[in-house]
Amino acid sequence: MLYPVKVFSTRGSDILAEEVCRALQARLPQELQVDGCLKLGRSEVVRFSNENLQVKVENVRDHFVVVIHTQVPPVNERLMELFALLDALKGARPADILVVFPYYPYARSDKKNQPRISTMAYRLAHILNHSFGIEQVLLLDPHDDHIKHYFDPVADEITSIYLLLDYLEKNVFTFQPKEESVLVFPDEGASKRYSGFARLLRIPTAYIDKGRRDDHEEPEVKGIIGDIKDKFCLMIDDEILTGKTAIGDANYILKEGGQSVWMLAPHAVFADKKMAKIDLIQKLAHSPIDKFIVTNSIPSTAQMIVDRSRFVLLPVESLLAEAIKRTVLGQSISELYDPKNVDLYR
Question: Can you give the residue ranges of the Ribose-phosphate pyrophosphokinase N-terminal domain (predicted)?
Fold first, then answer.
């Protein structure tokens, strides 16, 4: 049975959620849209004097509810707001709830690689499953493929990588010869994650050989495996955080004979506890990386780089809307992994 759809979001994620609503409105059957249109559901967040949060939502009884939450600062307060929102929604008797993470919070806290440390990526999934009874979760380009397995049932995963591929084919390789280009992986992990991307682009690859014992050490560059001499170098990773590693890698590539460096990443986190976001963006804009191609999965970053020439911002709201529609209607998500289907959400 199909139910009418309502979309909610936490604060900070509402900018992206409103775009998703517009894209979803064009995809969902009219009978599943309340009053014939789809707009962001009303929710009221109250912060009391003791800093406790309370969330109140509009009527969702017997509705298919979509909750969109991406990592935006203040991260921990927004996460608590998500919990309060889900608690309010669950108590309001919806038919079902789908939680959508354009960027999954605590994604980098995904493995116990030191004694006695927390693994919050797993714990968050456990809380959603067991405390809130959430059974449908959608992840966009998680930090690692195994994160979806923290959920029970296993979360659905989609990728923006075909949007990046589409952009390169139509806007870069129309003038840049592929035989003079190379895809550079910043480490062995990225080489495994994005090896298929290189095959689709049909360009050679290289990767930067590094050593790192734990998360607190700067990686030591041992060398580059592959030919980058006089090549247009495209670096790729799942996210850019402080940009320090990316800038260091770009400098090393240029020192070793690379002609120029661009950077691809689905998630533009752009956060450094030592500087304001705007200063970090300025630092990246004046770095040896000539162009950053990223998505708007993190709205707080997207708003600050949208008009800057060093940054190309690819929208993911249509991709998210297409995946949400397919979940609502019981259609295949796997079809979104076919590069030929990028027209469905470009």
Answer: 5-129
Handedness of CA 150, 151, 153, 158 (dihedral sign): negative
- Give the residue-averaged pLDDT of 187-201: 91
d(C-alpha 298, C-alpha 115), whole Å = 31
For residue 94, the number of C-alpha atoms closer than 13 Å in the C-beta half-sphere is: 27
Length of the chain: 346
Active site residues: 210
Q: Is the dihedral of CA 273, 274, 275, 281 positive or negative?
A: negative
Q: How far apart are the first and last CA of the chain?
A: 29
Domain boundaries, the chain: 5-160+317-341, 161-314
Q: Which residue has the tokens 């390789």?
A: 173
With 80 as the cut, is the pLDDT of residue 212 above it? no
Structural domain 5-160+317-341, CATH architecture: 3-Layer(aba) Sandwich (3.40)
- Report field, pTM of the whole predicted structure over 0.85: yes
Bridge partners of residue 224, in order along the sequence: 208
The torsion region of residue 133 among left (phi > 0), alpha (psi -120 to 50) and beta comes to left
Token look-up 């707009």 returns 39
State the pLDDT at residue 221. Answer: 87
Q: Which fold has domain 161-314?
A: Rossmann fold (3.40.50)
Q: How many CB atoms lie within 10 A of CB 257?
A: 13
74 phi and psi angles, rounded to 5 deg: -75, 120
Q: Give me 64's structure tokens.
A: 């298919």
Same fold, 5-160+317-341 and 161-314: yes
Any idea of the CA torsion for 178, 184, 189, 190, to the nearest 10 degrees?
Answer: -60
C-alpha to C-alpha distance for 255 and 221, rounded to whole angstroms: 13
- Alpha-carbon Rg for the chain, nearest whole angstrom, is 21
